[in-house]
Amino acid sequence: MDLSAVKAQAKQAVSEIVEASGIKAGQIFVVGCSSSEVLGETIGTNTSTDVAQALYQGINEVLEAKGIYLAAQCCEHLNRALVVSREAMEKYDFEQVNAIPQPNHAGGAFATVAYQEMPDAVLVEDIQARGEAGIDIGGTLIGMHLHPVVVPLRISLDKIGEARIICARRRPKYVGGQRAIYDESLM
Question: Which HAMAP family does the entry mention (predicted)?
Answer without folding.
Answer: UPF0340 (MF_00800)
